Amino acid sequence: MRRLCTLFLLALLLAGLLPAGAGADALWPAAGGNEQRSGKMKLDVSFLSEGYFLAAVQKPSSHRLKLRVVKDGETLTYDLNSNGDYEVFPLQLGNGDYEVSLYENVSGKKYSQEGRISLSVRTRLPGVCFLYPNQYVNYTQFSEAVTKAEELCAGKGPKEAYAIICDFMKNNFVYDYIKAVTVQAGQLPDIDNSYAKRMGVCQDLSAITVCMLRTQGIPSRLIIGYADNQYHAWTMTKMGGTDEFFDPTAALNAITPVKDYSMERYY
């Protein structure tokens, strides 16, 4: 009965019909113990139906590691930490057959495959992965952004909560121009540090926005792609069956007016 109630609540949330504060607790990933191992890689696949899996190297490594996720010819490549701690990865490409592979740097730019596991995925609700934290949108129950979202949106419906969170980002953050010229390739968004400073680059600001929305039961995506010819990040939120676009960097007037956004990947 409890599982049926949870399914019903999630269905209402994804349809935008349930007030964000009406029992819509944030969802948190977990390692459930259903592990699969191949070569140097291990995956926890306990919650594929929730739209995510956990990945780690079996033993700490001194080499750089890459995780490759392939479905229907589309490939996503991630950096994987080398200390053996699990990281959360979304199954954002939908239902179907995935192939997850681990690659270890052996010399220069050369990598060797050190594990491969196939996954058959059927999530219990479309888009459920966009209600959980993951490697790119990384937050915890202790993140200040989570606490603030709960404070701002208590008792609010999803449309009002969405507007409140977007306004909060516009009115309380600034763009980090210094980080913009010093950021390293492949650097992940830093929600906690950027929130504490109330500043960040495009992917930080977008990740904070997505974090706050997800913890209010509002499915939201961090989008990475191009704003005209500039590499950029923004958000897309499912609201009552339609996608709502929000670019926090543009809201801060920190980017020249954009004529065309083109998506490359999303998390």
Strands of the biggest beta sheet: in what spatial order? 1-2-3-6
Q: What is the ordering of alpha helices and beta strands?
A: HEEEEEEEEHHEHHEHEEEHE
Distance between the termini: 31 Å
Largest sheet properties: 4 strands, antiparallel
CATH architecture classification of the largest domain? Roll
Oligomeric nature of the chains: single chain
Q: Could you report the average pLDDT, rounded to the nearest whole number?
A: 91
Number of strands: 14
Structural class: alpha+beta
Helical fraction equals 25-40%
- Tally of discrete structural domains: 2
Strand content: 25-35%
Shape: globular
How large is the count of helical segments?
Answer: 7
Q: Given this structure, which CATH class of the largest domain is correct? A: Alpha Beta
Keywords, separated by commas or semicolons:
about 270 residues, alpha+beta, Immunoglobulin-like, C8orf32 fold, 4-stranded antiparallel β-sheet, disordered N terminus
Any overview of this molecule?
The protein has 267 residues and is α+β, with helices and mostly antiparallel strands. It has 2 domains: 36-125, Immunoglobulin-like (Sandwich); 133-266, Roll (C8orf32 fold). 25% of the residues lie in helices and 33% in strands. The strands form 4 sheets. The protein has a 4-stranded antiparallel sheet, with no helix packed on it. A 4-stranded antiparallel sheet has the order 5-4-7-8, with no helix packed on it. It has a 4-stranded antiparallel sheet with strand order 13-12-11-14. Helix 2 packs across helix 6 (202-214). The relative contact order is 0.14. The model is unreliable at 1-24 (pLDDT under 50).
